[in-house]
Write a structure and sequence with these properties.
about 180 residues, mainly alpha, 9 helices, single chain
Length: about 180
């Protein structure tokens, strides 16, 4: 019995001794882990208001991952998320910067049309720059006339600068006409 225990012990020691030490994480792997933990905290309660400081930390992490891993298939998606979170915390200029990088440098990305539309949305609603908003919306319509957001872009162009009360009145009048 002692021989069996001794053999098992020697085999166990041999296996642990041969095991490779864990490789240290790369900078992009560390950044991705940070993104995961920040997202878990920030998006845990959909009802809660997003903490601006934590949101900016997440945006910077997305941007850092993009810079470190531009060739990674996740990189452009992280840049899109940076734009979305920037938009959500009221950082319109930053959101437009990220969305424009996608439309200009990654036009083949599957969310590139949405990035162009959201550039217009941010300019109109966050930055209050109707001229830039119109430019982005018109570019969107010209480039993606059959996209599901094309009607929204056209509506935004037609109603830019109208107050909420004016829009409500317009909808009410349209409802009366169709009834």
């Amino acid at each position: 019995m002692r021989n069996v225990v001794a053999i098992v012990s020697l085999v166990s020691i041999g296996l642990f001794a041969c095991k490779e030490p864990a490789k240290p994480l790369t900078e992009s792997e560390k950044t991705l882990a940070q993104i995961d933990s920040l997202e878990a905290v920030l998006f845990a309660d959909a009802e809660a208001n997003v903490d601006h400081k934590a949101g900016m930390t997440l945006v910077r992490s997305y941007a850092k991952f993009y810079q470190l891993s531009e060739k990674d298939s996740l990189a452009v998606d992280m840049l899109f998320k940076a734009g979305e979170v920037s938009m959500g915390i009221g950082q319109g200029n930053l959101a437009v910067k990220y969305f424009r990088t996608i439309t200009e440098d990654h036009s083949d990305f599957h969310k590139a049309p949405e990035a162009l539309f959201l550039s217009g949305f941010c300019e109109e609603n966050l930055n209050k720059d109707t001229a830039q908003a119109r430019f982005f919306y018109e570019s969107f319509i010209a480039g993606f006339p059959n996209h599901k957001l094309a009607e929204d872009a056209q509506f935004s162009i037609q109603n830019m600068g109208k107050s909420d009360e004016d829009l409500i009145k317009m909808f009410q009048e349209n409802m009366k006409k169709t009834s």
